[in-house]
Amino acid sequence: xxxxxxxxxxxxxxxxxxxxxxxxxxxxxxxxxxxxxxxxxxxxxxxxxxxxxxxxxxxxxxxxxxxxxxxx
Length: 72
Known about the structure:
Elements: H1 5-17, H2 19-42, H3 48-58, H4 60-71
Helix pairs in contact: 2-3
């Protein structure tokens, strides 16, 4: 079954408005900030993967806790 353009657009809009997608975008933004800060500190681009792994290890848990607290 192939979706019409309108159905495809509606599905795309639904995904973009979902809380899961919004959480993904917010987390991605934090990782990109971390990448920039660490790259500036070290004097070279550390790359997304290194920034991701470092951010998860150092900041993800507290970031998620603060987000849960802000939405309660």
